[in-house]
């Protein structure tokens, strides 16, 4: 189990440029596998284009109470990148201007941003249909000041989306750290107690499943049935939907793939599983990701690779929906993670 | 030329058997695909059966493939190991039950 971020270890992989080099060299350079661009172009020039903006995803900072082995953000307690109140104000403006139907707060642990609660209060006044907070669950138990988060979420009708790699302790703790399973179970029980995730409840609680290793997620519906059966039987825990998300080969997951000698096999698996139907629904076509310092990206993965949007407007200072519309999405080989099998997005599979 | 009889990369090339006999190859893969679909048995149960049989037929490709398949389906390592023991128990039972033949023959030939 990694205890430190790549950043803290000053690992060369903490540099996005290095990751992009790895993703473009080797099997993709020597032609063993087609590049993503080649794969989607089908001989012609068919770039992936952004459509109408519907989902705004804000990364409130890379600080996290956990240091999960697979984290694509390279988050951890050492990360000091935190979105400022000024940038948050600009985000509120964008929400008002655009009428996005989904606001998705992520991190790190978004709750660790000192202005998190203020921002949620302000944003919840804007009448967004689906207001998501990606909460890692253990944060609720991490410190006294976070204990009332479930009630705070309820008060603002937040849609809680939380990670849970398995319904067993062993697998969960291996991926996310010792003790994470027990704390997550307790947090889920607390959320259930106030109505989150209960059958028929409007307080939405969904779980995210990422494989804990170099394999793809299985069928989302079948996994949801297994999770529900096991969590109910063992812990009387209810939740609404399970999102099965593929691990993209970047940051700490890329490091894991390389160190465990799984990188090439994993890339072959992703490319073999390429599904044109999933390509049609990749999330970057209707999402915009804003980093802690206000830069705009096609998705959170591109943010971590520092691949800014391909548009004249690159920062929230200059936000202009019209200019951003129809921009070419910036792609590289990590994109194969979104198009494998039933596809993958922050809302799970896409077909 | 590869230096060993089994190469992990060869599993990726399995589909190439169709190159030398399209009709039979395609029929096989279609059949294979249908067998593993959710039916009276769940895809999960089938995956565990396949894992047990992979061990009995001692196919390293199948073992790799169904270990990965099991992980994708959320099957735990305890479940996987129990499946392998089921295969091993049947296989050793099949050996041992022949002991009866040995005993029969022994008795027949002995005064
Ligand atoms: S909880 Fe999420 S952000 Fe934090 S380290 Fe784990 S995967 Fe990364
Ligand atoms: S990683 Fe996925 S969401 Fe991001 S740009 Fe590539 S295909 Fe789009």
How is this structure best described in words?
The complex is a heterodimer of chains A (351) and B (111). By secondary structure, chain A is α/β, with parallel strands linked by helices. Chain A has a single domain (36-339), classed as Alpha-Beta Barrel (TIM Barrel). Helix content of chain A is 34%, strand content 10%. Chain A has an eight-stranded mixed β-sheet. The longest helix of chain A has 16 residues, at 220-235. Chain A is globular, with a radius of gyration of 19 Å. Chain B has 111 residues and is mostly helical. Chain B has one domain: AhpD-like, CATH 1.20.1290. Helix content of chain B is 75%, strand content 0%. Chain B is built from six helices and no strands. Chain B has helices spanning 8-12, 17-20, 22-35, 43-56, 60-72, 77-109. In chain B, helix 4 (43-56) runs antiparallel to helix 5 and helix 4 crosses helix 6. The model of chain B has no long low-confidence stretch (mean pLDDT 94). Chains A and B meet through helix 9 and helix 11 of A and helix 5 of B. One iron/sulfur cluster (SF4) is lined by residues 64, 66-68, 71, 73, 75, 107-109, 136 of chain A. One iron/sulfur cluster is lined by residues 282-284, 298-299, 301-302, 329, 331, 334-335, 338 of chain A.
């Amino acid at each position: 189990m990694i205890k430190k971020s790549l950043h803290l270890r000053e690992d060369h992989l903490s540099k996005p440029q290095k990751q992009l080099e790895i993703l473009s060299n080797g099997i993709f350079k020597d032609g063993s596998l087609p590049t993503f661009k080649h794969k989607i172009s089908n001989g012609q020039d068919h770039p992936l284009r952004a459509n109408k903006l519907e989902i705004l995803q804000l990364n409130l900072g890379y600080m996290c109470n956990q240091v999960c082995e697979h984290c694509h953000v390279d988050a951890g307690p050492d990360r000091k990148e935190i979105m400022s109140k000024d940038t948050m104000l600009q985000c509120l403006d964008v929400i008002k201007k655009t009428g996005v139907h989904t606001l998705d707060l992520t991190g790190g642990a978004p709750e660790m941003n000192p202005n998190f609660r203020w921002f949620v209060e302000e944003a919840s006044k804007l009448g967004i249909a689906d207001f998501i907070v990606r909460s890692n669950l253990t944060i609720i138990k991490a410190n006294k000041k976070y204990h009332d988060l479930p009630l705070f979420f309820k008060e603002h009708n937040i849609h809680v989306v939380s990670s849970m790699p398995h319904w067993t302790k062993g697998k969960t703790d291996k991926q996310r750290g010792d003790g994470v399973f027990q704390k997550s179970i307790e947090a889920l029980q607390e959320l259930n107690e106030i109505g989150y995730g209960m059958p028929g409840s409007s307080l939405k609680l969904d779980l995210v499943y990422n494989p804990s290793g170099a394999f793809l997620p299985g069928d989302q519906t079948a996994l949801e049935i297994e999770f529900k059966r096991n969590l109910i039987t063992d812990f009387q825990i209810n939740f609404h939907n399970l999102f099965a998300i593929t691990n993209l080969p970047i940051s700490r997951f890329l490091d894991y793939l390389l160190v465990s000698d799984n990188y090439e096999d994993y890339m072959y698996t992703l490319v073999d599983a390429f599904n044109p139907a999933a390509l049609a629904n990749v999330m970057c076509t209707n999402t915009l990701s804003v980093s802690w310092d206000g830069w705009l990206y096609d998705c959170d993965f591109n943010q971590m690779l520092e691949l800014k949007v391909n548009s004249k407007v690159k920062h929230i200072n200059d936000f202009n929906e019209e200019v951003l519309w129809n921009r070419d999405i910036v792609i590289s080989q990590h994109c194969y993670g979104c198009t494998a099998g039933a596809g993958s997005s922050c809302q799970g599979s896409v077909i | 030329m590869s230096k060993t009889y089994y190469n992990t990369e060869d599993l990726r090339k399995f589909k190439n058997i169709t190159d030398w006999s399209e009709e039979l190859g395609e029929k096989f893969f279609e059949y294979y695909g249908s067998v593993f679909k959710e039916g009276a048995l769940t895809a999960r149960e089938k995956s565990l059966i396949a894992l047990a049989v992979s061990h009995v037929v001692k196919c390293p490709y199948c073992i790799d493939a169904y270990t990965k398949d099991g992980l994708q389906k959320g099957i735990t390592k305890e479940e996987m190991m129990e499946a392998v023991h089921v295969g091993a128990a049947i296989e050793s039972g099949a050996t041992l039950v022949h002991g009866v033949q040995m005993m029969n023959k022994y008795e027949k030939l002995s005064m």
